[in-house]
Write a structure and sequence with these properties.
By secondary structure, the chain is mainly beta. The chain has one helix at 123-138; strands spanning 3-7, 18-23, 41-48, 53-58, 61-69, 84-88, 97-114. The protein has one domain (3-26, 40-138): Lipocalin (Beta Barrel). The protein contains one helix and seven strands. Strands 1, 2, 3, 4, 5, 6 and 7 form a seven-stranded mixed sheet that branches. It holds the Pfam family RNase_H2_suC.
């Protein structure tokens, strides 16, 4: 059985790297890496600030997304939760241990749906409810 170790302290050179997490309504059964390309992804073609939405196109399909700022409590002043981006480090085969290092954070999460904004029963909305429940249970504020 392998063990996994997470180094949650980012390296000095990547401590300020911020990413946007895009949750797409697709099922992809691929775990490899791809080179960065804009061939099929035209990011933020239209953005509606009033509704906190953006419209993108993936392979010709219209995707409408909702922006979640500080998703999961990424605000370091008010929460212990955060979305981090990890990179797999060196594997110690003698100890059978995998290591991962933080390369950045995701202060913004964009949840997309086909042609419409994702519904209230969406997995990201349910995850947000779990974060709220966790805050209610574990916060010391009375």
């Amino acid at each position: 059985m392998s063990n996994t170790a997470y180094n949650t302290k980012p390296k000095e050179s990547s401590s300020s790297t911020e990413y946007t997490c895009n949750v797409l309504p697709v099922n992809i059964d691929f775990t490899g890496t791809l080179s960065t390309t804009t061939k099929f992804w035209n990011a933020q073609l239209a953005k509606d600030e009033e509704k906190n939405q953006s419209v993108n196109y993936l392979r010709g399909r219209r995707l409408v997304g909702t922006h979640h700022e500080n998703f999961g409590g990424n605000d370091p002043d008010t929460s212990t939760h955060s979305l981090k981006v990890f990179k797999k480090g060196e594997t110690d085969f003698q100890k059978d241990t995998n290591t991962f290092e933080v390369v950045g954070e995701c202060p913004t999460l964009v949840n997309y749906g086909h042609e419409n904004v994702p519904g209230s029963d969406d997995c990201v909305e349910r995850l947000n409810e779990w974060f709220e429940l966790s805050r209610c249970i574990h916060d010391d504020d009375d």
